[in-house]
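Justification of computing resources. Each target in the renewal requires a structure prediction run like the one illustrated here; the chain below, 84 residues long, is used simply to show the kind of job we budget for.
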Amino acid sequence: MELTPQTVTINANTALRGAYDEVPHRAVTIGMHAIHGSRKIELYFNRPWQAAVLRKALLLERTTEFPVTLLRGMKHSPTVSPRW
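Resulting C-alpha cells:
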C-alpha cells in the first residue's frame, strides 16, 4: 500500500532525524494468521506516545478491538524494544 505524505514525513522526523528520502513510501500489511505462523515477532516503539500501546498490549483482555493483544496467546513471545 502507498503511505500518505503525512505518514512519510512523521516517520522521517521521528525515526530518521528528518531523512525523508530514506523512508519507504510503500508498506505491506499482513494478517494475524501470518503473524501467528511466524518464527519471530519484534515490536519496536520509538515514540514516547507508543508507551500507551505497549501498556494496553500487556494489560488489556485479548480482543480483536485491539489486535496487538492477540499476540499474548502465541507459542512464542514477541520481542519488545522500547527506544524512546
